[in-house]
Amino acid sequence: LILIVFEGSLELKYDAAKNKVIRSAFLSALTILLGTVTIITLIIYQISHRDLHSCIANAIPFSVISSAIAIPSAAALGKQDREFVIYESSFSDILGIIIFNFAIANHSITTSAFIGLGLSTFLIILLSAIACIVLLYIMGKLIHHIKFFLIISILILVYAVGQSYHLSSLVLILSTGLFLNNADTIKNIWFRTTFLYKNLTADLAQLYQLSAESAFILRTFFFVIFGFTMDIYELNNLPVLANGVFILLAIFLIRLAVLKVFKSGKAAPILYLAPRGLISVLLYFNLPASLKMPEVGTSFLFLVVLGTSIIMTLGLTLSKRKLDEQLA
User: Fold this and answer.
1) What's the pTM value of the predicted model, to 2 decimals?
2) Rounded to whole angstroms, how far apart are CA atoms 249 and 13?
3) What are phi and psi of 292, to 5 degrees?
4) pLDDT at residue 185 above 80?
5) Beta strands in 94-242 (DSSP E)
6) Structural domains of the chain sorted by starting position, each given as residue range(s) with its CATH number in brackets
7) N- or C-end of the chain: fewer Cβ atoms within 10 A?
8) Mean pLDDT of 244-257
9) Is the CB of residue 38 less than 8 Å from the CB of residue 254?
């Protein structure tokens, strides 16, 4: 997940004209996440009849878009749509983790809970700023032939430190990639003299290549291992199938409604890019034992992951075919 978000952020070049895209992507991700959590919470409550807190905690993993799948799948889209998907899926991951950590740490919503959330957000922003400067400085000073894996290792270490304090460390990964790829646009003379160096552009190209190839390998092995943990015969359970279909309908209907508001132009093909995957699995397995429900098992998760991936594949294929027909 670190490498995938880092790879995506290294593709993004910031300019003031993109403020509208970033704002739209953030509002879209937040609204879709909250709306989907609400509807899926109601579905899980109908299934399990457990307390609302447990239902919300179980609903969050099903509500987060997986940037691990969405970002590579957006590669064939136009530049504007691709940037929207990268920002939206990254924001969805970040906001999903923040809300998930908040939900499992607080059984009730109180003033102190929101103070803790604000403090953790401030700390991760501060940590991100420090990490960005330090990593850029190290990149300029390293002359050893083993350079980029060391940079990635430091990034993973800082991420792990943030996670150990229950901070949303994906903010750090996204901001670091954005900062490194846009450092040359900073006009401050002291900054340019101290931190920028001759081979920065070439080093960033190599760092991106290494991140992309490493992310591909890790993503492939992860989903192979996840597949081995699944028992597909559990999908013969009719209630599981029915509830899975209801969740899929909720995911795409809410997404369609929100994209109509925050995305200019047609909703397709971005509508279909709502896959559940790596982040959903990680959040699901991080649920405390006291919050896990037998009614919402791994087969349920597998059905939603598989369903969103199939819909995404078919939707992108049909959209591309329609575009080719229009061009012809």
Assistant:
1) 0.83
2) 35
3) -75, 145
4) yes
5) none
6) 2-327 (1.20.1530.20)
7) C
8) 94
9) no
